[in-house]
Amino acid sequence: MCSRTTKYDCLKRYFGYESFKEGQEFLIDSILEGKDTLGIMPTGAGKSICYQIPGIMMDGITLVITPLISLMKDQVASLKEAGIRGAYFNSSLTYNQYMKALEYAKIGTYKIIYVAPERLINRAFLDFVKCVKISMIAVDEAHCISQWGQDFRPSYLRITDLIDELGYRPVISAFTATATKQVRDDIIRILELQDPAMLTTGFDRKNLKFEVRKPADKYSFVRDYIRSSPGKSGIIYCISRRLVEEVCDKLNRDGIRTTRYHAGLDDGERRKNQDNFTYDTVPVMVATNAFGMGIDKSNVSFVIHYNMPKNMESYYQEAGRAGRDGENADCILLFGESDVHVNQLFIEKDSENEELTEAEREMLRDRDRRKLRQMTMYCRTNECLRQYILSYFGEDSDGNCGNCSNCLADFMTVDITGTACNVIRCIDSLYTSFGMTTIIDILRGSRSDRIIRADLDSTDLYGAEADSSKEFLKQVINHMLIRGYLVKSEDRYGVLRVSSDRKVTDLLLQREKLKMKYAEDRAESRKKARKHNFDSEDMSNNYSNNEELYQALVKLRLRTAKVKSVPAYVIFTDKTLREMCISRPATEEEFLQISGVGESKLQKYGKNFLKVIREYSR
Ligand code: ADP
Ligand code: MG
Q1: CA distances, 435 to each of 374, 486, 617 (Å)
Q2: How many CB atoms lie within 10 A of CB 395?
Q3: How many CA atoms lie less than 13 Å away from 464 in the CB half-sphere?
Q4: Ligand 1 centroid to 458 CA: how many Å?
Q5: Bridge partners, 233 (sequence order)
Q6: CA dihedral 422, 424, 427, 431 (to 10 degrees)
Q7: What's the Cα-to-Cα distance from 174 to each of 75, 197, 225, rounded to whole Å?
Q8: CB atoms within 10 A of CB 265
């Protein structure tokens, strides 16, 4: 590579982008300066380019270690599309293919080579690396090295063996979307990163709109949602295989082309269904959480959770598969009370790890119960959902994102000091602990058998909130839980206690006020939320008058992708097609200005795409 080529040239020439995204420049610079580098960036932030561009610019070969065989193929296809010499070594190659690829690699055919971690200490592979100069080892999905990460891969531990075998030390770079300190520390320690340059970019994904909905009929909600956004690609996560089957069948019967994925299907069908989804043959995927890390599809425009997942980590990771291309995307969680119970059952039944003692297992169950509680709070809060997520991951934000169902809903801020004090006094006056339903019944002066028989109608606060609705009191109590005035037991009974925090006294003495956002009419506010969304002026809405051209370009892309047997987004992303519709380039020069068009793609596809654009511009 010509030493005068700059990273900006690379970005434009190979990837067709005008500018770097947050964090990319820092990471690329630090690698080019020869420093070990650790990049922690959320999914979709553009980590690949951070090692691919230095890989192109440095003079030797870059090895990229990544756990997923299915992904490697697409990643290398993307590189080739961009005009970069890439290859992959994994178990999907036959022995002969592998040997041939190694031969080519030895004579310097490839700049960037993806390797499965299992291959690293394979004899033939070691022979190869000793014949060439490895300038960098890039460890993608680096959290796999940590037992604390969600996807621990013991074979990742072999990376250091490979480095030892080399006899010299290339630059080591590592990338992950997992931000916890334990994982970060493990990556640095186990990979033996030397004084690494480190960067964590914000976890906020501004293009994702977060929503929590409590529809009476989840299925109708999903069906209507998909019908209202035709042609869009999305994932629906269900809590069980049975539910996956059910929802998938119903959608297909209702005329929505849908495929499915869960661990009960055989390998062949799983692969086929995943391909159909990735290659845009079928727009909708219904899946359990087994449909996981291997999804690198950039144009997923919605992720619906049919059930509440078990914790915020899972939720953010799964929801985060939407909008990787930077387009606006919806992350909708459909909450039902039964989701809480099902998840609780999973926790109580879980006896997965045989190696643990009962005490250790109980500790883990405790942790899981707490995480479930925090997940449930997310579904119940009326405050900004984005703030809730970010604060869960240890990031501050101002709490009014304007792009979540709570910020968009029409909430009234109400002073609930009086009601909150009644709740506290009521709980304090009882001889034993009760759950939320009973407390609400007492406060509302219920005449139900249960209340009368237990003599609860004789408590001081009986009927003190007779004018309040059940729903209002429920929201007040949840708010008090979130704000730490009340504590709920972690067991299945979920009984309420008053917290020992000083702020309880402050509240009772009226030294402090407690306010809460309250939605009186959720249906009404939903209408408004939708309208707001529709009004917002952004690129994705402008293209509607170009719809025909857009569809024509999508068709051309699909044809091209089929010929090359790569996923459609490897040719051009939706965003790139949209930009073509809006700016309607007429010449090759103008075509090259489109974000996502580099020189290689201009040469390969410019003519055909320009032709279609011309036809529609006449
Ligand atoms: P990650 O590995 O961090 O999840 P990827 O590397 O897969 O993210 O990139 C996500 C998407 O962002 C891809 O479609 C990629 O082409 C795009 N992308 C990366 N860098 C840029 C950039 N500088 N400008 C515009 N799009 C970019
Ligand atoms: Mg990645």
Answers
A1: 18, 12, 65
A2: 14
A3: 21
A4: 64
A5: 300
A6: -100
A7: 17, 10, 39
A8: 17
Rounded to whole angstroms, how far apart are CA atoms 194 and 205? 31
pLDDT digits (tens, 9 = 90+) for 248-294: 999 999 999 999 999 899 989 999 999 999 999 999 999 999 897 66
Which is the closest atom of ligand 1 to the Cα of 21?
A: 23
Angle at 365 between CA 360 and CA 367, to 5 degrees: 95
Say how many C-beta atoms besides its own lie within 10 A of residue 298's C-beta. 19
The pLDDT mean for the chain works out to 88
Q: 613 and 549 in contact (C-beta within 8 Å)?
A: yes
For a mutational test of ligand 1's pocket, the pick from 7, 10, 14, 21, i.e. the residue with the most ligand atoms closer than 8 A to its C-beta, is 21
Bridge partners (DSSP) of residue 61 are 134
DSSP string, 45-111: S-HHHHHHHHHHHSSSEEEEE-S-HHHHHHHHHHHHHTT--EEEESTTS-HHHHHHHHHHHHTT--S
Pocket of ligand 1 (CB under 6 A): 17, 20-21, 24, 41, 43-49, 296, 298, 324-325, 573
- Tell me: pLDDT of 537 over 50: no
CA of 44 to the centre of ligand 1 (A): 6
pTM above threshold 0.85: no
Over the stretch 489-532, which tens digit does the pLDDT of each residue have? 877 778 999 999 899 999 999 888 898 887 654 443 344 344 33
Distance 559 CA to ligand 1 centre (A): 24
